[in-house]
Amino acid sequence: MTEPAPEQPHPHQPPLVTDSAAHLLTRITDQLGAQLSLVSRNGTRRPMHRTRQPDRPAAHGRPSAPALVAVAHGSRDPEALRTVLALLDRVRDLRPGLDVRLGHIELNAPLLPDTLDGLRGSDAVLVPLLLGRGTHVKRDLPAGAAAATGVRTRIAAPLGPHPLLVEALYERLGEAGWDVADHGGRHAAVVLAAAGSRDPDSAQDTRRTARLLALRLGVPVVPAYASATTPTVPAALRALAARGRHRTFVASYFTAPGRFANACADAVPHRAAAPLGAHPAMARLVLHRYDQALTAGAPADAVSLLASA
Q1: Is 2's pLDDT higher than 50?
Q2: What is the mean pLDDT of the chain?
């Protein structure tokens, strides 16, 4: 579009500098109004406020985003619930206005069916606060979503594996006394303590996280489990000691404190990291999984195993 020619003063108008203040403001307003119009291809001028597509809803008419329902396992340890609530507070701080709710698979209120019952007529994304593909993710969540009447649900991928988890694990180890000077040390190693599952996909996810953490630390990282499979944390510690790895830390691959997390930490009480908990990277990862599920449009009857990048 070519620039308009400079406006020439009318021969009968007084010079601009002699206009009254009111007249000057009127002229400026008229000129700005003309410049704020758009010229279409056929030369017709349209005011800028009419260029919005007619099928795009106005800001006040946009539907609200689906609720984020964080699904925790549940624990008899009261610290577990406090930790999960703190994590969800971080999520809300990162995404103000998003409806963030909590539902438990067992042991704690609110249970997932009760949370979904309070969302009748709405959309929801279920984000499991679980670290791999086990029975809860593959069966319990789809079953719970299918049983919820009047709620349109999508299921996000579990939190792990993902580089953000490695970031949180690394910083938790630092809090427990891990020294960056141990990078590449011949006597250092880490046991990645997880809950354990008979599902081979769950073990595969834990091993992948162990490999990512080993790359970050520069020392061996061995997965170990509190239940269902082997090796146990004490057995992993003994195996590492037999290889000369006596300076060994335990990384707690748990979302929150609980019976299994505490049992793993007891193996090396002075060199065991805290669970991932309300680490800032965890809050970012919860929202990342929520956004992935929205983009992929994962249905409630299929777990979305999205890429971890």
Answers
A1: no
A2: 80
pLDDT digits (tens, 9 = 90+) for 157-203: 999 999 999 999 999 999 999 987 766 678 999 999 999 888 889 99
Q: Specify the length of the chain in residues.
A: 309
Task: Read off the pLDDT of residues 25-62 as tens digits, 9 standing for 90 and up.
Answer: 344 334 434 443 333 333 333 333 332 333 333 344 45
| Closest of 133, 156, 195 to residue 70, by C-alpha | 156
Residue 155: other Cβ atoms inside 10 A: 26
The tens digit of pLDDT for each residue in 100-136 reads: 999 999 999 999 999 999 999 999 999 999 998 888 7
Kindly provide the b/e burial profile for residues 40-65, where b requires at least 16 CB atoms within 10 angstroms of the residue's own CB: eeeeeeeeeeeeeeeeeeeeeeeeee
CA-to-CA dists, residue 52 to 36, 49, 108, 180, angstroms:
14, 7, 48, 55
Determine the angle formed by the axes of helices 163-175 and 280-296, rounding to 10 degrees: 170
DSSP 80-97: HHHHHHHHHHHHHHHSTT
Residue that is written with structure tokens 């689906």 in the block: 66
State the Cα torsion 89-92-94-95 to the nearest 10°.
170
Bridge partners of 38, per DSSP, are 46
Tell me the backbone φ, ψ of residue 100, rounded to 5 degrees.
-110, 125
